[in-house]
Amino acid sequence: MKLLTPGPVEVPERVLKRCCQKVISHRSQDFRELLTSVVEKLKKLVKLDEDGAIAVLSGSGTTAVDAMIWSFVKPGDRVLVVVNGEFGERAADSAIRRGAQVEAIRAKEGDVVDVDTIVDRLENKNYDFVIVVQNETSMAVRYTFEELRKIGKVAQENGSLVLVDGVSGLAGDKVWFTDGVAAIAGCTHKAIAAPPGAAFVAISPEGAEIIRKRYSEDIPPALDLKRYIDKYDSVRETPFTPPITILYALEEALKIIVDEIGVENYIDIHVQRKHYFYNKIRHIDGLKPVPKNMKVASNTLAALWVENATLIQQELRKAGYIIATGIKEYKNKMIRIGLMGDINFKDLDIVVQVLEQSLTKQK
């Protein structure tokens, strides 16, 4: 079976093998060298200045997003959340639970909130933070780097900072730092193509200074980015026991992306897969892309409207591929196919063939 879900993804064999190394103490010199290597490679992945910080956490992408929101946002802060789907809703919920004054602007199905709408809101109302999900897997839509840069610039000019959920786009898209972006949350098991279990928050130099100076005793310890920054600054360690074997795998995956393929070339692989897949399904009756156009379409997964998602999912499983259906009310109306991990065009060709055969059976 091959994983073609929005995450976890099909992990390259050499990355999996790194998980089998001997477990080491997280208070040892060997671990400090491992963590330093991971942090330095992650900085290159997100184009973070040397003065920025990386907090490496145990958990999922949701853990990273919650840690980012709870560490930056204080109760009473004014927060604008851009909601393009389910994960935007979850970010808004996290900020509400933190005690923030939250306003949300929502996109239509298969689209993103227009950047000019976000800019207008930022120029006419005061916010402390803007939360943006760069790649929304529930609808397979995304913001380009140029759009994030525009949001960041206007936010900065109007006294706000941008917090980016980069979980499902990072490494497959240009989820990079730019003016106004204080932090980017990510994890191991999406486009980075390592096993699940570790997450991280990359923090700009300005954002790191805010965190270092912040009173944080009202934040759950495991979500307190100040603890992670302080511990790394002082002794190159994590404050709590990390998933050591997953960090081995993360280092190996980052070697492939950063040192061997190159970050921009790796992103381009995902762009090619996206266009290849959507072009292949254009002629198939009964399939309609969820994204309204290719500009807003995610690089890391494809989503299609269908009449019977569960049946198609079952047919693809018989062919050796695991895909996802839609979330909540879209469960049987949508299929979502990951374009990340150790897959190739032949895999996508087989998926297209099964889709065509499955839809022919349903007629």
Coarse structural class: alpha/beta
CATH architecture grouping of the largest domain:
3-Layer(aba) Sandwich
> C-alpha Rg, in Å?
20 Å
Q: Estimate the mean pLDDT confidence.
A: 97
Give the number of domains: 2
Basic shape: globular
Low-pLDDT residue intervals, each spanning 5 or more residues:
none
Helix content: 40-55%
CATH domain class name of the largest domain: Alpha Beta
Largest sheet: 7 strands, mixed
Q: What does this protein look like?
A:
With 363 residues, the protein is α/β, with parallel strands linked by helices. The chain has two domains: 13-259, Aspartate Aminotransferase, domain 2 (3-Layer(aba) Sandwich), CATH 3.40.640.10; 262-362, Aspartate Aminotransferase, domain 1. Helix content is 43%, strand content 18%. It contains twelve helices and 15 strands. It has a seven-stranded mixed β-sheet, with helices on both faces. The protein has a four-stranded antiparallel β-sheet with strand order 11-12-15-14. A two-stranded parallel sheet has the order 1-13. Strand 3, helix 4 and strand 4 form a beta-alpha-beta unit. The protein is globular and about 65 Å long. The two termini are 27 Å apart. The mean pLDDT is 97.
